[in-house]
Amino acid sequence: MEIQNRPIGVFDSGVGGISVLKEAIKLLPNENFIYYGDSKNAPYGTKDVNEVKSLSFSVTDELIDRGIKALVVACNTATSAAIIDLRKRYKIPIVGIEPALKPAVLLGRKGKILIMATPMTLSEKKFYNLMKKYEDVAEILPMPCPGLVELIENGIFSGEKISSYLKEKLSPYIEYGIAAIVLGCTHYPFVKKEIGIIAKNVPIIDGSRGTAKQLKKKLTLIHLLNSSGKMGYVELHNSLEGNKMLDISSKLLNIEL
Ligand code: DGL
């Protein structure tokens, strides 16, 4: 098969990266995608950095074996822990994701910008450097959300458990005025509606569209866009055996965000 017509690999610690996959399909309808959710090892965000690196290598090896032409690391945590090493180790184009702080700053709204993400994303150097870039022009508040990924991995996107978790996290800041909320974990767009109910009228931003745009830009630049002219296909895979995660994955792929 011509290299341009090979699939693009997309991976995450679980089902979260489907929020990125959805945007990538919208922007690149002729591309074929192989999505790999590593739910067996989720969550990544509370693990050790070296463990996340090695898990990212294993998943990438698996996708390379399936013949991918490019890779999207649709996980903020794996991007912050492993993107440099992934790029050193594999010769294919690799696109990562990071908390969409820039668009939040550009809104120019008063108040704190809350960055909801996993503990690892917020404690890694990549985020420190990103925050340094904007700390003079914006009030940035990193908000680690351990436990939220687990709820979403269990197919819980609304209801009492989610709303009480989010209320506890967000309520102390609401009365002081929040400029924006950045969803710095690809699982969180699936609970965006619930966040919106608590943080009324606050813009909620995530990096999935930006990552998909970056992917398109990269593939265009290196002449690697699919040239078949046909609608692409999507394959869903998960490291957990059985149908549960695949069922949740297809449900998430088809819901409107
Ligand atoms: N979706 C991953 C992210 O973007 C979640 C990481 C985790 O498994 O903790 O950070």
Describe this structure in words.
- The chain is an alpha/beta fold and 257 residues long.
- It has 2 domains: 141 residues, Rossmann fold (3-Layer(aba) Sandwich), CATH 3.40.50.1860; 106 residues, Rossmann fold.
- The relative contact order is 0.21.
- The protein has 11 helices and 9 strands.
- The strands form 2 sheets. Strands 4-3-1-2-9 form a 5-stranded parallel sheet, with helices on both faces.
- Helix 3 links the parallel strand 3 and strand 4.
- It binds D-glutamic acid.
- D-glutamic acid binds next to helix 3.
Using the 3D structure, state the CATH architecture of the largest domain.
Answer: 3-Layer(aba) Sandwich
Instruction: State the separation between the terminal residues, measured CA to CA.
Output: 34 Å
- How many domains? 2
Bound molecules: D-glutamic acid
Reported for the largest beta sheet, the result is:
5 strands, parallel
Secondary structure: number of strands: 9
Question: What is the C-level CATH assignment of the largest domain?
Answer: Alpha Beta
Give a summary of the structure in a few sentences.
This protein has helices at residues 18-27, 49-65, 76-89, 101-106, 119-123, 125-134, 148-153, 160-174, 192-198, 208-221, 244-254, and strands at 8-12, 33-37, 70-73, 94-95, 112-117, 139-144, 178-183, 204-206, 234-238. It has 257 residues and is an alpha/beta fold. The chain has 2 domains: 3-97 and 208-253, 3-Layer(aba) Sandwich (Rossmann fold), CATH 3.40.50.1860; 101-206, Rossmann fold (3-Layer(aba) Sandwich), CATH 3.40.50.1860.
